[in-house]
Amino acid sequence: MTDRTLMRLRALDTWWFREGRLFEQTDEGLAEAESVFPPSPATLAGAVAVALARALPGRSVDPVGTDWSADGSGLDELTGLAGRGESGIRATGPFILRGHELFVPMPLTLALDDEHNTRILLPTAEMGSDLGRALLVRKQPLTNEDPKALERFETRPKCWLRWPEFVRHALDMQSSQGKFPGNAWFNTSSTFASEGRIGIGADPVAGVAKDGQLYAASHIRPQGEDWLETGQFFLAVQLERRNDRLPSNIATPLTLGGKGRLATAEIVEGTAFAPGAQEIQFDRWDFDPRHKQCLRLRLIAVTPVPIDERQPFGLPAMTKELAGLEPVAAALGRPQTIGLWRGNDAPRLVRVFPAGSTWFARLAPQKMKKAELIKHLWREAFRQRLASPDLAAQGFGAFVIGNWPKPNQVGNG
Predict the structure, then answer these.
(1) Are 299 and 360 within one domain?
(2) How far apart are CA 240 and CA 121, in angstroms?
């Protein structure tokens, strides 16, 4: 049994989330630092870990800088969130909440036009490359549709998709070839505005400013009536713990991101990133007769996935029932570098594929019947992570299993 809690966070002023590149405010040529959105999973999990630690009963000292693993008052249960080891509590996110509606990053196998019509991307033609032969992933037309009509459809890597529409796209790509409601997705740029700030570099030892060390920090401020008037949009992260209850108290407001930016935090009831009881169209999931009846699947990243350069398409190795996955094509976002800071330790840089990246893979034959196997894999994906245990605890590598239909099975839905 897994206990899940979705926590929503709202900015009290501006936010400033660092990107992965090293920035030294006293260096010439590095005089500007822009905020990114969303924050990395580690930024979000670390802030929540400190806020949970401060709310523990009997805590009389600040948890920052202490030995969490040796503490006996509950800090040891938060080591994974804080990036200081592994613990029973795991984060998943970031997500966005609009009211109680959950939004996740848009899959890169989904293309939309300005009228909210949708098309899908599938591996079709084989092409040559410096690395050998590969399947080309491209947009698929509807039955009898002029391929030129696909030019108006674009993938939306900086957009967010409502969870029910995401599930519909993942589990039944045929029915997702149609039209989404206009409120089912939005672009990050429509919810945040950049706001320039000026800072000055300080001597790390003396703590005093020096001449000639001004730098610019570009913050982001929530904008639009949904943020400012109704307050319906929230940044969100899910905490989960197997075989035990999660903490119910959190110190708020909490510090989130750089420059001491603040956010309120509260637990949301009745909303979760979880398998649920979705209707799965088993007859539309395919075995590949050319490859010993292998099941054709997609793996859709919901949070950033650390790149394993030793594996095909950078996909980290899987375990248990998914250990036999063979990736054969991918629709991948531009790799990003995320910096992980641990107090005064040197930063650790991790290269990741962004959320929304998708792998097409074959799964070796299993002993289960088709319907049982698909249902089992759908639930198993919520337990596994495409990341090492320490990064998985902070929210990296969350993914969903989806259907990979044949191009000739894509119709008008």
Answers:
(1) yes
(2) 32
Give yes or no: residues 252 and 284 share one domain.
no
Say yes or no: 336 and 213 in one domain: no
What are the structure tokens assigned to 217, written together? 């920090």
Q: Residue 412: its pLDDT value, please?
A: 40
Angstrom distance (rounded) from CA 257 to CA 227: 19
Residue 105 lies in a domain: no
Among all chains, which residue has been given the structure tokens 């209707």?
Answer: 279
Clarify whether residues 207 and 354 are in a common domain.
no
396 lies in which domain range? Answer: 115-187+275-413
Identity of residue 17: F
Q: Does 107 map to a domain?
A: no
Quick one: pLDDT at residue 22? 54
Question: Domain tally for the chain?
Answer: 2
Cα dihedral across residues 160, 165, 167, 168: positive or negative: negative
DSSP 244-275: SPPP----SSEE-SSTT-EEEEEEESS--SS-
Query: Taking residues 297-316, what's their average pLDDT?
Result: 93
Give helix then strand counts, H and E, for the chain. Answer: 5, 23
pLDDT at 408 over 70: no
CA-angle at 305, arms to 300 and 311, nearest 5°: 95
Q: What residues contact residue 11 under an 8 Å CB cut-off, 6+ apart?
A: 221, 222, 235, 261, 262, 263
Q: What is the CATH number of the domain that holds 220?
A: 3.30.70
**How far is it, in rounded angstroms, from Cα 15 to Cα 263?**
9
CA 398 to chain centre: 7
- What confidence score (pLDDT) does residue 1 get? 56
Are residue 176 and residue 206 in the same domain, yes or no?
A: no
28 and 94 inside one domain: yes
The secondary structure of 346-386 as a DSSP string is: PPEEEEEEPTT-EEEEEE---SS-HHHHHHHHHHHHHH--S
Q: Where are the alpha helices (DSSP H) in 55-192?
A: 163-171
Q: Which of 18, 51, 53 is nearest to 255 (CA)?
A: 51
Kindly state whether residue 346 falls inside one of the protein's structural domains: yes
Query: Which two three-digit tokens encode residue 294?
Result: 């292998």
Report helix, strand or coil for 13. coil
pLDDT for res 334: 92
To the nearest whole number, what is the mean pLDDT of the chain?
A: 78
Q: Give the residues across from 400 on adjacent strands.
A: 300
